[in-house]
Amino acid sequence: MKFVPKHADGSVNAPKSSPVLEFLYLSIGLLAVIGAVYFILGAAVDLIVPHISAETERKISSAFAVKYAPSAKRPAEELRLQKLTDDLGKLTGFPAGAFTVRFINDKTENAAALPGGIIFFYKGLYDKLNDENEIVFVLAHEMGHFNNRDHLRRLGRSLIFILLMAGFNSSSNDISGLVNMGLGSAETGFSRHQEIKADLFAADLLMKKYGSAAGAKKVLSLFKTRENGSEFMYFLSTHPHSGKRIEAIEKHLKQAGER
Fold first, then answer.
1. 219: which of 15, 53, 99, 226 lies 20 to 30 Å off by Cα?
2. Minimal CA–CA distance to 154: which of 222, 61, 70?
3. pTM score of the predicted model
């Protein structure tokens, strides 16, 4: 038999699989593992939060209460918001003095609930509201977050998010970006659910105080006029589309026998 030498085709030392595919498989695997860890720890936070006592919550939130304590000379808007909030508190099971409203002299059209019973009400949103019913809806919505203890859930989930992301900040930026995007999507879905629950709490409180939830629809209709994106785009948003929020409130009130 005659030996016939073959010429190398250039693939002798080349890997059989593609580096791109290996990176993709690795990224998907890591994302799945991190997502599972985040889901389990997030579920643990949801289980623990309802059992946190008021005293423990006060200790956890004390740093926020001190940092955002009102000044000795509070603006007229802040005093008005504080009185409305105190009046709303009497209609709920919250103890007197549970909330402190801070009026933020900023164009931002927003309000927010922080640990420690702190409610931020921005001037930009305050100036857009036309009557007390609308203002009370915003305050009641933020109180809804406290009623659902969303502030503690967000605090716990934020800590988990930070810890998980810290483990990837020193690794590949590409993998870190994928993990960030995946966890961010999960978090926005969680947040949208919280917003709807806070809306329903606020609608019930409006009905109890005024016998009407017109303020809720007015505020959300205002937001709706400013939303240029389609409802699909709100898949990546922390807030549901305002049209969906109005529908949820109308359905809730109808089921409760209200108009």
1. 99
2. 61
3. 0.73
